[in-house]
Amino acid sequence: MPTKKSRNRTFLVALVLILAGTVWGISALTGASTTLDPAQIAVVERGTMRRSVVATGRVEPITKVEIKSKANGIIEKLYVDVDQLVQPGQVLAELDRENLTARLRQARANLQGAEAAHEAADAQLKKNEIEAQSPDVEFAKRNSVRAQQLFDQKLVSQSSLDEARNGFEQALNRQAAAQGQLVISRARVTEAIANVAQSRAALESAEEELANATIKAPIRATVLTRDVEIGSPVSSILNLGANGTLVFTLGDIERVFVRGRVDEADIGRVRIDQPANITTETFRDRVFQGRVTQISPIGVDKDNVTTFEVKVSIDNPGKELKANMTANAEIILEEFPNSVLMPEAGVFYDDRRNSFVDLVDASSRTGRKRVPVQVGIGNGTKMQVVRGVNPGDKVVLPN
Q1: What SS3 class is residue 117?
Q2: Which residues 6+ apart lie within 8 Å of 56 measured at CB?
Q3: How far, in Å, are 247, 251, 279, 344, 385 from residue 377 at the CA level?
Q4: Pairing mode, if any, of strands 300-302 and 305-315?
Q5: How far apart are CA 363 and CA 192, in angstroms?
Q6: How many CB atoms lie within 10 A of CB 324?
Q7: Helix axis angle, 98-133 to 158-212, nearest 10°
Q8: Straight-line distance from the first to the last Cα atom of the chain, in angstroms, rounded to the nearest whole number
Q9: Three state DSSP letters for 271-285
């Protein structure tokens, strides 16, 4: 049976264990409350506060031209390929010239024939004009009058008078015939002139078709696509219009633009010439500079959301940006340099919309202390703080 002394020793040991457990629990709780996850701590910094809106679209050349042939034919020669820089007037391709050259020779021959026919008709007209004047009519008339006078004086016979009268009538008939032929000759000259003009127009058309067999660059640009090969048939745009064969696509990619859409809630703050930062999937670590150059005056409603088209132009002298790249154009609406910035998630508000932040405080039981702040503008990620914290302060973010 245990003695009184042993029972006292057991009680003391149990009391020591209870006190030790209590001290350990308190210290454990205190340590947990003062230890903060480093991922929850952010440092207040000084920088430039920007409020912006992002327009997403594709990179497009400022100038883009589809090259189609004005002549029908077969591609005989190709002088350029994709990604080559071409100058205005530079030859890009040539069509087969054999048929076009034959047509040109025929047109020249037809013109020469028409000009010869015109000269012949003109000469005939001059001949008929002389014949229509009929100088022998006056002579035959005088001869008929004299024969009548002599007949009245019984100096000539009836047959002589009749012969003189017949001569006069025949002269009149010849004059009438010549005048009728003169009208025909004039018509033939007019017809010959028209034939010459028609043949000359056909010659000019044949010359133009032959010239059109040489396809040239209309602008200084880069070859974006080449849509034919040697031997490919080409249909004229003059015959088929927009359905004419596409030969090349040229574009000036030294100056490009991004065409994106901006929500109606933000479009009122977008202005021509505002700066923009352009990023792409290809160049994730690089920002290109651009400016707003066009704002659509009419919005487009889709799924009850109205957006406005905005064009942001970018200088691209190194041609790093390629046509049809997906790009995000961050249009800078407002900019405040030398601002005190912190993560927007670290700002708390009470019922009265007063703002607070939690600063790291090692002396506090919770490891933090809440202080009031005055905030400025935010961009969804960063918040501008006007008063209450300083650069270098550490703020606690929510879990």
Answers
A1: helix
A2: 260, 261, 326, 327, 328, 329
A3: 53, 41, 24, 10, 8
A4: antiparallel
A5: 114
A6: 10
A7: 160
A8: 59
A9: CCCCEEEEEECCCCC
Average pLDDT of every residue of the chain: 84
Q: Position of tokens 């046509």?
A: 323
More confident call, 165 vs 206? 206
3-state SS, residue 184: helix
Q: Which residues of 140-171 are buried (b: 16+ CB within 10 A; e: fewer)?
A: beebbeebeeebeeeebeeeebeebeebbeeb
Helices (H), 135-272: 135-152, 158-212, 237-240, 264-267
Q: What percent of the chain has pLDDT over 90?
A: 47
Q: SS3 of 244, please? A: coil
Nearest-angstrom CA–CA distance, 5 and 10: 9
Q: H-type helices in the chain, by residue range?
A: 4-34, 98-133, 135-152, 158-212, 237-240, 264-267
Q: Which of 26-30, 136-140, 334-338, 378-382 has the lowest mean pLDDT?
A: 26-30
| Residue 52 CA neighbour count, 13 Å, CB half | 20
Q: CA-CA distance, 232 to 218, in Å (whole number)? A: 22
Q: Which tens digits make up the pLDDT trace of 352-365?
A: 999 999 999 988 88
- CA separation for the pair 298, 230 (Å, rounded): 46
What is each CA distance from 256 to 26, 59, 223, 262, in whole angstroms? 67, 6, 15, 19
Residue 294 has pLDDT above 90, yes or no: yes
Task: Count Cα neighbours of 48 within 13 Å in the Cβ-side half-sphere.
Answer: 8
Two tokens, residue 69: 């042939």
Q: How far is CA 382 from CA 44, 46, 72, 330, 345, in A?
A: 10, 11, 62, 15, 8
- Judge whether residue 6 has pLDDT over 60: no
> How far is the C-alpha of 64 from the C-alpha of 66, rounded, in Å?
7
3-state helix, strand, coil in the chain (%, to 5): 40, 35, 25
Model confidence over 217-269: pLDDT tens digits? 999 999 999 999 999 999 988 888 888 999 999 999 889 999 999 999 889 99
- What residue type is assigned to position 53 of the chain? V
**Residues 6+ away with beta carbon under 8 Å from 27:** none
Q: Which of 201-210, 238-247, 341-350 has the highest mean pLDDT?
A: 341-350
Averaged over 2-31, what is the pLDDT? 50
